[in-house]
Amino acid sequence: MKTATTRDRERLVCAAICQANGLKAREIARQLNLDRSVVNRVLYASPLLKELCWQDRDSRWHGIIRQERPHAGLFEFCGYYSRVDEFMDLPEGEWLKRLLEGCERIGRSTSDARGLLHSFRDCRTQMARLFTDLMDMAGEGCLKWEIAFEFRLKRSRRVRIYADVLVITEDKVFSLEFKMKDAVEGEDVSQAAKYAPYLEIVFGPDYEVLPALVLTGAKELFDFSPIGASDFLLPVCSGDMLFNVFDEYLGFLSGK
User: Fold this and answer.
1) Which domain holds residue 235?
2) Helices (H), 108-250
């Protein structure tokens, strides 16, 4: 039998908390068939769970982000969060205003010294085009999905998660890393992939986390690149081909 890793336990404990309305450590242990000492060690030693969970005066644990749709609490960690239909209806200026206000709220720097505002607008343009494409190809069901820009978990010293865009479907989370480049670089592929294990803890076992790299300076690109020296491959695409990443896992073009 495969031995559970620390991350496996974090995911299980976080899911138990974030899918309930307040549990004590002994209830979590009983539910997961784990020793209470193991549960306590996860609760008090995991930097990530310290970000995602809190304990009330009755020693009951609660999750900040609910692991169900809509993901109540996700807003607390994002520059911008909404359903896709709200995002598509929002003019760019109002969207940017809300994004910048949200970035201030979560402590994300909004200095434009390195063209940050241009990158934000570029990212929005790519996402708006994606959902226009998806509506044409697969209908308006995608408008019920959720979208988050600038997802941040950064208060703890050991955990740094900086996801550019999250798109949350019924059972998948697409984690999109945007680069204003026209060529694939290994370090960008690794960066796009490295947040996936942590996002699996955030969203729980009912969701598959799917990372991808989007190169907004490229055209007509859709390929798979190796992640470091591993055998795992990561989807890489240009903005105009981003719909292919979603089709790869949702299969709307082939009718899977």
Assistant:
1) 74-250
2) 116-138, 186-194, 196-203, 243-250
Q: Are both 54 and 83 inside the same structural domain?
A: no
Alpha carbon distance 16, 28 (integer Å): 7
Q: How many domains in the chain? A: 2
DSSP characters over 196-214: HHHHHHHH-TT-EEEEEEE
Residue 50: give its domain's CATH number. 1.10.10.10
Cα–Cα distance measured from residue 90 to residue 102, given in angstroms and rounded to the nearest whole number:
15
Question: pLDDT category, 112, cuts 50, 70, 90?
Answer: confident
Local confidence band at 109 (pLDDT 50, 70, 90 cut-offs)? confident
> For residues 187 and 11, what is the distance between their CA atoms, to the nearest angstrom?
27
Return all residues near 241 (Cβ < 8 A) that are at least 6 apart. 220, 221, 222
On whether both 41 and 92 belong to a single domain, the answer is no
Classify residue 41: in a domain, yes or no: yes
Residue whose C-alpha is closest to residue 84's, from 153, 119, 121, 133: 133
Q: 196-217: per-residue pLDDT in tens?
A: 999 999 999 999 999 999 999 9
